[in-house]
Design goal:
Strand content of chain A: over 45%
Order of helices and strands of chain B: EEEEEEEEEEE
Low-confidence stretches of chain B: none
Number of strands of chain B: 11
Largest interface: A-B, 23 and 21 residues
Oligomer: heterodimer
Mean pLDDT of chain B: 92
Shape of chain B: globular
Radius of gyration of chain A: 14 Å
């Protein structure tokens, strides 16, 4: 079993829909949760970064962390075709020299 | 604008050849990383470096070596390429000591080994 589980998709939704992307993890030593966005043929770029349980909002994006359930989510409101990309979750393992542990990534397609 | 530059976007090599992948960052970052990315497996850490001439093994170092002679440059070496090393290779850097979550990535080097 992987330490971080993420549905690879692809997830295809119409433009304007609300998108929910999720990751689950098994290790309570994982803290500092991140979402990276990776466009085709590009490297990943940091989208959102959060530590505590609860919600963090940035424009159309909301990152949600539930440490008790070991579950993180990224919500995209009013999705646009330009949001089409692969979204990777990542988290820091505090017990393993602060290593970054990655999800496999979810490919998101927003249809015009 | 911060930048991580990988020398080659696409390479095709033959089995047994030596392969050099070079990465340069212009942000004066202490930490540099090499990952490989394969479908369904996500990002896997090959090697990382916290400082010049320092290197640490990641999760999958077998078949690879690295060199960091200057702070801004981190090279990945495949001494004898094999077909199972066909992959996308991503270089990244970050500031500070230790590993932090905010990594800056290059655009990747897609290696095909025939």
């Amino acid at each position: 079993q992987k330490e971080v589980e993420q549905d690879p998709g692809p997830l295809s939704v119409p433009e304007g829909a609300i998108v929910s992307l999720n990751c689950t993890y098994s290790n309570s030593a994982f803290q500092y949760f991140m979402w990276y966005r990776q466009y085709s043929r590009k490297g990943p770029e940091l989208l959102m970064y959060t530590y505590s349980s609860g919600n963090k909002e940035d424009g159309r994006f909301t990152a949600q962390v539930d440490k008790s359930s070991k579950y993180i989510s990224l919500f995209i409101r009013d999705s646009q075709p330009s949001d089409s990309a692969t979204y990777l979750c990542a988290m820091i393992d505090m017990d393993s020299n602060y290593q970054l542990i990655w999800g496999a990534g979810t490919k998101l397609i927003i249809k015009p | 604008d911060v930048k991580v530059t990988q020398s080659s976007r696409y390479l095709v090599k033959r089995t047994g050849e030596k392969v050099f992948l070079e990465c340069v960052q212009d942000m004066d970052h202490e930490n540099m990383f090499w990952y490989r990315q394969d479908p369904g497996l996500g990002l896997r850490l090959i090697y990382f470096s916290y400082d010049v001439k320092m290197k640490e093994k990641g999760d999958i170092p077998e078949g690879y070596s690295v060199s960091r002679e200057k702070k801004e440059r981190f090279s990945l070496i495949l001494e004898s390429a094999s077909t199972n090393q066909t992959s996308m290779y991503l270089c990244a850097s970050s500031r500070g000591t230790g590993n932090t979550g905010e990594l800056f990535f290059g655009e990747g080097s897609r290696l095909t080994v025939l």
